[in-house]
Write a structure and sequence with these properties.
Helices cover 28% and strands 17% of the residues. The chain is built from five helices and six strands, in the order E-H-E-H-E-E-H-H-H-E-E. It has helices spanning 26-38, 69-72, 90-96, 98-107, 114-120, and strands at residues 16-20, 54-58, 74-78, 85-89, 123-125, 139-140. It has a four-stranded parallel beta sheet with strand order 5-2-1-6, covered by helices on one side. Helix 1 (26-38) links the parallel strand 1 and strand 2. Helix 1 (26-38) crosses helix 4 and helix 3 crosses helix 4. The longest helix is centred in the first third of the chain and has 13 residues, at 26-38. 24% of the residues are buried.
Length: 148
Amino acid sequence: MTRTYSPKASEIQRNWVVIDATDVVLGRLASHAAALLRGKHKPTFVNHLDSGDFVIIVNADKVALTGQKLQKKIAYRHSGHPGGLKGVNYAELLEKNPVRAVEKAVRGMLPKNSLGRQQIAKLKVYTGAEHPHAAQQPQPYALDQVAQ
């Protein structure tokens, strides 16, 4: 009889992946990054364990948005106090803090529980082309997409 294989947390192999966000649509970038963080590309994927890879996103300031989202889409945040809802459009957010815009998009595609918090901790986002993770020997990840 064949048994179902379920990996243990100690058996999980984590790789490092670099994604260049230059002229990549934000939602497409976020969905690929979220799938890598969750480990859905691995044959040993189980949804109750954090089996994903570490993801490094460089050039976050050069990410693209389609249509009129740059002016019309609003990123909300809440202070936790009554009346503490604040919103800013993505044109301002990408100018002031592009790292937050990318992290917000990826976080929205992960589970909203302790497992999702574990997975988002493996995401590293940088505005420039340089990152301090060269010692981990990250592999480049190519997004197969149509030119913008």
